[in-house]
Design a protein that fits this description.
The protein contains 9 helices and 5 strands. It is an alpha/beta fold. It has 2 domains: 126 residues, Rossmann fold, CATH 3.40.50.2300; 59 residues, Winged helix-like DNA-binding domain superfamily/Winged helix DNA-binding domain (Arc Repressor Mutant, subunit A). α6 crosses α8 and α7 crosses α8. Pfam families: GerE, Response_reg.
Amino acid sequence: MHSEQHKVILIDDDPAVREALGLTLRHAGLDVEDYDSAEAYLECCNPQRHGCLVLDLNMPGMSGLELQQTLVQRDIRIPIIFLSAHGDIPTSVKAVKAGAVDFLPKPFRGRDLLARVEEALEKGRVLRRKAEEIARVLQRFERLTPREREVMASVVTGLSSKEVARELRLSHRTVEIHRARIMEKMEAASVAELVGLALVCGILELPVGMP
């Protein structure tokens, strides 16, 4: 049985194209699910399904680009490889800028498709790992009390415990206790690491001009 992370979802209105591409992908050991339209895919789209989309850019009804935009609006993050005619290059570039992994101009070689699919699947794995790590950090943050969050917000700006105590009108000892608990609950080994976690939690923003 193939892993869900190797699921390739093929969407193209041309049955001959779906059959040919599906054969190529299955021969490479990939689990393929195909649809003849974007609408058909959306009817049974599973946000938790791992893998990638191989998507025709121009289809009757909802176009590939419109499907991409719909998935973004629904916060469904899945790597997309667009299949496009040569005249669709500007639209394809727009799709890539909107988050697509790549686009393949028709006609293309099977090995080129497989290479793009492998890249997309790896990108999907990386995105899932990042999402899982963010979820774990947010769970830790939820364990903080309102006062601990307040102290954390001050600490990550670079204030010393004494300065935090003055700002929040607390005793230095109380701030030290809160600070120790924050480091423990957030599983941070240093203030620098706590700063990184604060960025993930949204209680600290990068200075303007920084990536």
